[in-house]
Amino acid sequence: MPSNPNRIAIVDDDDALRDALAWLFSTRDHEVQSFASADAFLKDYSPDRFGCILLDVRMPGMSGLELFQKLKEYTYLPPVIFLTGHGDVPMAVGALKDGATDFVEKPFNDNDIVDLVEKSLVADQEHRSQWQAKNAVEIRLESLTPREREVMTLILTGRLNKQIADDLSISMKTVEVHRARILEKMHVKTAMELAALLRDAGVET
User: Are 200 and 133 in contact (CB under 8 A)?
Assistant: First the structure.
């Protein structure tokens, strides 16, 4: 299944409900993929395939709540909206506290659920962009050697090359080489750009 962060996933063991929701969203020009079980959904799942997940609380086998916990193990969690019966509302509220986006009680209003999903798709685009930016910076950081990480930390505190050389008992020339490699690997030209990159990505060093 190709990636599409605007696609909506429907995970529910009720065939009629899945079909009704799939039709509803298709009439609003949304791409939808439905699954009759948590296992079927997880079979080829990755976070980049869906921008919003509609998830039934109660299903045979793995429940919606159990599936939600598995989804949280991935590096990115798209918005998850629980579909609940009246008796499942307390569980859905608990899921909200645990990171779910919202829940919709059955039977639901068509316009309300479409509005909620569309808002979630917009929010996902923003959060996904932030996550991708942070992930890209973290990958660059992983390319640094332990010594380069040490030098970078000192650079970010404002230490000069001579001070860093004294701190680490290495030569000025070695510090200059490390500094140049750090800036090259992090795709920046100055220490100020490096600090701004890490700050904007929300990355802790």
Answer: yes
